[in-house]
Specification:
The chain is of the alpha/beta class. The protein contains 5 helices and 8 strands, in the order βαββββαβββααα. The longest helix has 12 residues.
């Protein structure tokens, strides 16, 4: 277990969310499912209370808190994708069943959790010593919803 684990608040679907997230990324697993020993405001004794899971090697906690949480982009989870195919696959999966796309590679999944789906190539462009190329890539990204690596590269190259 990591010394620090982000905790994501769910109404009552922490286990379903953990299983879904783990299905998306290698080196992921549902590690523990803890049931409440007593009745609480969020559920009855025996209901799933906390789910420990690992996503791509990072530990997380899912908590069934009973009432809806208010997520914001102030805290989000970024997935650095190897290529456009991975970007597309994860984007589509996280939007399925009620997710909402946002600007600049952001989305909220069906539970409202904010994610950033970013192809590594874009991160490399922004960090490049080619300042003018970086500016063009950033400007192109600002006009996108899902990030398009080919279009970002074209902008970076000046095309």
């Amino acid at each position: 277990m990591s010394k620090i684990s982000p905790c994501i608040w769910f109404v009552n679907e922490a286990e379903a969310a953990a299983k879904f997230y783990c299905s998306l990324l290698p080196n992921s697993s549902v590690d523990t499912v803890q049931r409440s020993p007593i009745d609480t405001p969020s559920g009855k004794a025996g209901d799933v209370l906390v789910v420990g899971f690992t996503l791509a090697g990072q530990s997380f906690i899912g908590l069934n808190g009973g009432s809806p949480a208010q997520f914001s982009h102030a805290v989000s989870f970024t997935i650095h994708c190897d290529d456009q195919a991975e970007t597309d696959r994860l984007w589509d999966a996280l939007l399925a069943n009620g997710g909402k796309p946002q600007q600049c590679g952001w989305l909220n999944d069906r539970w409202g959790v904010p994610w950033q789906i970013v192809p590594k190539g874009f991160t490399e462009m922004v960090a490049s010593d080619n300042i003018e190329g970086s500016k063009r890539a950033m400007t192109a990204m600002m006009g996108m919803v899902k990030l398009d690596l080919a279009a970002l590269k074209k902008a970076f190259d000046g095309g």
